[in-house]
Amino acid sequence: MKNLTDSFVSLGLSHWPSAGSFGFNTDILATNPINLSVVIGVLIFFGKGVLSDLLDNRKQRILNTIQNSEELRERAIEKLEKARARLRKVEMEADQFRVNGYSEIEREKMNLINSTYKTLEQLENYKNETIHFEQQRAINQVRQRVFQQALQGALGTLNSCLNNELHLRTINANIGIFVAMKKITD
């Protein structure tokens, strides 16, 4: 890191000799990898523990949601079994009442089957929507927390690195740049 800082300062001195021992590297191609490596390093250092905890918590919530969905599924299967038992009962009654109206019993049977399948489909759709919603919410929460922590870490690093002397030299260097740019444009 010291070599990186020395190269940054030495590059700055070559462009602005009046800036003293500090300067800015305006070469975008040379500074972007440095900036990216610093930001990635800060994100990894400050965010890995929290991100791991967030992911573990989210995993547990998703597992709970899946378990709840499985319970809903089991209840639906129980309802289906009850519906099948009822269907068998209706079929037995149909044999007894065939003379009195076989077509009415068939309609009742089909309505019962259709309503049961519709109920099962609705429960399955509800389970899938719940899982999808929870996944999206987890992703959004992780994104927000990682961003907040990265921002806090970056601000903390900047605040700890900037002191009054460094801040004044930075301002003087920027003023020098603006004066030089104005002379060029005039």
From TrEMBL:
Membrane topology: Single-pass membrane protein
Record's keyword terms, sorted: ATP synthesis, CF(0), Chloroplast, Coiled coil, Hydrogen ion transport, Ion transport, Membrane, Plastid, Transmembrane, Transmembrane helix, Transport
InterPro entries linked: ATP_synth_b/b'su_bac/chlpt (IPR002146)
GO biological process, one term: proton motive force-driven ATP synthesis
Keyword Repeat part of the UniProt annotation: no
TM stretches of this protein: 34-51
Primary location class: membrane
Entry's Gene Ontology cellular component terms: proton-transporting ATP synthase complex
A molecular function (GO) term: proton transmembrane transporter activity
Protein location: Membrane
Any coiled-coil regions, as ranges: 59-100
Functional description taken from the UniProt entry: F(1)F(0) ATP synthase produces ATP from ADP in the presence of a proton or sodium gradient. F-type ATPases consist of two structural domains, F(1) containing the extramembraneous catalytic core and F(0) containing the membrane proton channel, linked together by a central stalk and a peripheral stalk. During catalysis, ATP synthesis in the catalytic domain of F(1) is coupled via a rotary mechanism of the central stalk subunits to proton translocation.
Similarity field: Belongs to the ATPase B chain family.
Matching PANTHER family: ATP SYNTHASE SUBUNIT B, CHLOROPLASTIC
Protein name: ATP synthase CF0 subunit I
Species in which this protein is naturally found: Rhabdodendron amazonicum
